[in-house]
Write a structure and sequence with these properties.
Layout: E1 21-27, E2 30-36, E3 39-44, E4 47-53, H1 58-66, E5 68-73, H2 79-85, H3 95-99, E6 103-104, E7 113-114, E8 119-131, E9 134-146, E10 165-169, E11 172-175
Amino acid sequence: MPKEEVPLNRALRLINSGPVVLVTAAAKGRMTVMAAAWATPVSSAPPLVVVAIHPARFTHELIQKSGEFVLNIPHADLAKKVNYCGSVSGRDHDKFKEAGLTPVEAKKVGAPWIAECIGHLECGVVEAYVTGDHTLFVGQVLAVWVESGTFDRVWLVGKEEARLLHHLGGNFYCVSTERLEL
């Protein structure tokens, strides 16, 4: 089959197809939420995740001040709200209110959960690295919560309420609907 060249500014879209997360952060009485496709596990012992956030983002500022964040896992029905949270700045907008999302007090960190999401990883920052135009915040996972009936060692993506939303780039998303066991 013939191959075609892809522009370098689209290269990461080949390997980054989600799942998208909603990152929440809070500091000094302010909180925000942003959509992020660049989040990944990097260690299982201890459990560590990385989220890449541009320094101009309000979320970046709040994570730097607090040293904490939550990765909230949205289901596919939240697609429009997720896209909105990735389109405007929390510095200028109350994205929780405007997107119709409900902040809920987390168990171990000051950043809130999002009630409508099906999973939450509460994280404390252990390192931050500037790489190119983003900061990689390495977070140790301090607590993990999931909506009952959506997870059993892995996401039960065949269930309607556990369909994960994946970011393909720009305004394009897809949904996981089938789990394969090999």
